[in-house]
UniProtKB/TrEMBL annotation:
It comes from Apiospora rasikravindrae. InterPro entries: ACT-like_dom_sf, CASTOR_ACT_dom, CASTOR_mTORC1. Pfam families: ACT_7 (PF13840). This is CASTOR ACT domain-containing protein. Residues 44-103 form the CASTOR ACT domain. PANTHER family: CASTOR ACT DOMAIN-CONTAINING PROTEIN, CHROMOSOME 1, WHOLE GENOME SHOTGUN SEQUENCE. Residues 122-142, 182-205 are annotated as: Disordered.
Amino acid sequence: MAFSTSASPPVECSVVCHDNWAKKVFEPVIRRLPRDASKTVTISKDSYLILSVISAGMNAGTGVMELTSPLALAGIPIFFITTYYSDFILVPTKDRQTVVQALLCRGFEFSEDESAFVSPTAHVRGGSVSSQPPSTPPPSNVAELQTRTFELLKKRDVVPFIEEGLTVVLCSGKDLEQEQLNHFSRRPTPSRRATGNGTNGGHARRSWLDNVDTKLYTSLISVLVLQPRFLSMTLAQEDPPSLLLDKTQLSVFGDSLVGDVEGDLVPIFLDLENLPIEATGIVSGVAGRLVAEMRMNETGDGEQLSYLSTARAGAVILSGEQSLKALEVMKPLLSKE
């Protein structure tokens, strides 16, 4: 299970959690809200299957496309969440069989215990995995997928934008047990995707709750009180807490975080409020076109591309320099002039 909460401009809070939480925690609270306020809150009618992706041997941009394109070509809507150690793809539970077949047809294989999908370049851990055909025929290839994606965004007046002065960093809560191992072995702090299948250097984590620095949570409350311009936090069973955070709020956390705190990641936001939640191919279409147009596979800059889906928005996350180039690619494709 993954629990993720994200806030992005203009004002939005999206929560991904177990469906029992939605029914037993959020629904009773929503029912007690004033009528006008309750209309601003929605809970998805569909439940979702979580695929946890730990990439190996490929950059992040390629990883996004390798996992999302076969699902988009099968007409399956997804959400995508980037974290420090893993990426999470959320697909409708009702499409379980279609998801399995789409990945198997693209060369993925079951692990020995059939609890995961495995490819030569990525490992995908599945949650608990009657399929329905898509309402319209899916695209026949990746190029058509990208064309359809930008035609849809253009039709719905989606304009990519950057929040002035907003820079984010991708960090992880400090694993105190790992800190002790690093101290004695003098190994560097692990980087994103440095660990696989919930292990680190052959050492199996019991749970991040056993080892995480508790200062992280008091710091998080302080940041929420300050109403940050951007914050995404993901709690997953096998990884320490992961934060995608407005860099100006970094000092609040003190030494409770690890990661590239000197980074200059910039989100490019896509307001998707006018798109149906079942729209397919947005992640793969946008990321794929950027990687191709900007030749990220040739330069290695695809290592810096990440994506974050929320209920009403999408965010392509790149370095500051690459984000400006990406805007130059995207705006002509979405201009109606």
